[in-house]
């Protein structure tokens, strides 16, 4: 029987037993990279990827059942954010440079991971750590000045807790379509595929004509799995066959290339929650965004009212004499500007989401409509109206508020 791992041992990516003390040993790619860097030679193709994989595999912390691997994307926010904000609090010009460059760095990293089609915890950890760090600065630097009451601290804390609760709900199942079993796949291929009429689809997959497809798709009167068409879907509604998931997607469903799954009423893949936004979690996503906006704006107002006495929050944000007179005020004012930048970005996302809901269009549908030139640009391009599901403002919001609820039961007479 193999001896159990100690707290500092682990099994590496090659399947070999290793120790944390030897984390810098036996790394030929890193040795070659350092040697080429010292001799001013270029690295061979793929060396950086192999070095990054080796570092990610060896970055671990001791644990009872063996060293636990740390996701390397969690480290930069935890280390760099406090350092940057404390450096920015030293001088106004430093704050200007750092607060201007931070959004650019985040956007650069987003496009880098988006181009590589990679999932990362960087944005989720950045968001959560920013919330925690801003809250700690508020309690340590703002509350002791005596201008913030306990009731206001309680309100801010409750808003933060409610927002995190909504965020945890938004992190759950967005409405993944279950992959059919091998039996379902074989039966689908034997029974369904020959009877399907395959047509061209706007998203590169194959559309499925649903006319006359009800026969052979139900067992004992019940639809079985998502790979077969449900009687509850509107007749004549377009459906798509997903070659990757090997199933027929219902209307408005889409395949997420980052999650590798098909999602009901897919809106988009949100990097801030590291998950898709779909039929089951769209409401929680909007609620989390709304609570974040309210909580952040309230915290900004309380901090500015404390640091810049006698000025309105909007004026104090742009003109606050004496903000850099002491380090505590400078750090609080710098964190306010950081929160204002993040809040502006999240406010833009929330605005687009609310407009899309009002026109009953998803981000995915808007993107496809722009690509195929089939949608109308409204409000200066903020929203793309496809016209396919738009039933009016009230009906669209009623449809959104009913997402995730079980469909109404239909009797046998209604189906017939």
Plain-language structure description:
- With 416 residues, the chain is of the alpha+beta class.
- Helices cover 48% and strands 11% of the residues.
- It is globular, with a radius of gyration of 27 Å.
- Mean pLDDT is 80; it is low at 185-237.
- β7 (218-219) and β8 (222-223) form a beta hairpin.
- It has helices spanning 28-38, 47-58, 75-88, 92-116, 122-142, 150-170, 182-191, 282-307, 313-318, 327-358, 363-372, 393-401, 412-415, and strands at residues 9-11, 17-19, 60-61, 68-69, 197-200, 206-209, 218-219, 222-223, 239-242, 247-249, 254-256, 261-263, 268-270, 275-277, 376-378, 383-385.
- The strands form seven sheets. It has a four-stranded antiparallel sheet, with no helix packed on it. The chain has a two-stranded antiparallel sheet with strand order 1-2.
Q: So what's the overall shape?
A: globular
Low-pLDDT runs of 5+ residues are 185-237
The secondary structure category is: alpha+beta
Element order: H for helix, E for strand: EEHHEEHHHHHEEEEEEEEEEHHHHEEHH
Distance between the termini: 63 Å
- Oligomerization state: single chain
Tally of alpha and pi helices: 13
For the biggest β-sheet, the strand order reads: 5-6-9-10
Biggest pleated-sheet summary = 4 strands, antiparallel
Portion of residues in helices?
Answer: 40-55%
Number of E strands? 16
Beta-strand percentage range: 5-15%
* Overall pLDDT: 80
Gyration radius over CA: 27 Å
In summary, what is this structure?
The chain is built from 13 helices and 16 strands.
Helix and strand topology:
Elements: E1 9-11, E2 17-19, H1 28-38, H2 47-58, E3 60-61, E4 68-69, H3 75-88, H4 92-116, H5 122-142, H6 150-170, H7 182-191, E5 197-200, E6 206-209, E7 218-219, E8 222-223, E9 239-242, E10 247-249, E11 254-256, E12 261-263, E13 268-270, E14 275-277, H8 282-307, H9 313-318, H10 327-358, H11 363-372, E15 376-378, E16 383-385, H12 393-401, H13 412-415
Antiparallel strand pairs: 1-2, 3-4, 5-6, 6-9, 7-8, 9-10, 11-12, 13-14, 15-16
Helix pairs in contact: 3-4, 3-5, 5-10, 6-8, 8-10
């Amino acid at each position: 029987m193999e001896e159990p791992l100690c707290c500092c041992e682990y099994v590496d990516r090659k399947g070999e037993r290793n120790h944390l003390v030897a984390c810098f040993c036996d790394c030929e790619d890193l040795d070659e990279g350092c040697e080429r860097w010292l001799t001013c030679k270029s690295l061979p193709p793929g060396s950086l990827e192999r070095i990054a994989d080796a570092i990610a595999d060896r970055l671990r912390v001791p644990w009872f059942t063996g060293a636990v691997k740390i996701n390397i994307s969690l480290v930069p926010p935890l280390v760099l954010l406090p350092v940057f904000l404390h450096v920015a609090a030293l001088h106004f010009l430093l704050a200007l440079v750092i607060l201007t460059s931070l959004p650019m760095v985040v956007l650069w990293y987003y496009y880098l991971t988006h181009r590589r089609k990679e999932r990362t915890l960087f944005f989720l950890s950045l968001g959560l750590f920013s919330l925690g760090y801003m809250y700690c600065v508020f309690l340590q630097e703002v509350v002791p000045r005596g201008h913030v009451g306990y009731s206001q601290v309680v309100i801010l804390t409750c808003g933060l807790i409610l927002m995190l609760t909504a965020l945890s709900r938004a992190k759950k199942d967005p409405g993944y379509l279950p992959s059919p079993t091998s039996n379902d796949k074989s039966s689908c291929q034997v029974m369904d595929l020959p009877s399907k009429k395959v047509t061209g689809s706007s998203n590169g997959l194959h559309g499925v004509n649903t006319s006359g497809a009800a026969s052979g798709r139900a067992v004992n009167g019940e639809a079985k799995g998502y790979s077969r068409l449900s009687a509850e879907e509107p007749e004549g509604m377009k459906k798509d066959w997903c070659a990757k998931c090997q199933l027929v997607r219902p209307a408005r469903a889409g395949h997420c290339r980052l999650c590798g799954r098909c999602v009901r009423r897919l809106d988009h893949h949100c990097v801030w929650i590291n998950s898709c936004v779909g039929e089951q979690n769209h409401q929680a996503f909007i609620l989390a965004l709304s609570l974040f906006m309210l909580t952040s704006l309230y915290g900004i107002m309380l901090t500015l009212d404390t640091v810049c006495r006698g000025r309105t929050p909007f004026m104090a944000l742009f003109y606050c004499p004496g903000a850099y007179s002491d380090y505590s005020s400078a750090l609080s004012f710098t964190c306010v500007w950081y929160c204002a930048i993040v809040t502006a970005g999240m406010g833009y996302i929330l605005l687009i989401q609310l407009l899309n809901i009002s026109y009953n269009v998803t981000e995915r549908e808007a993107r496809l409509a722009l690509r195929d030139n089939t949608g109308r640009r409204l409000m200066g391009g903020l929203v793309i109206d496809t016209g396919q599901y738009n039933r009016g403002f009230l009906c669209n919001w009623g449809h959104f508020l009913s997402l995730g609820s079980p469909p109404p039961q239909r009797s046998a007479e209604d189906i017939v």
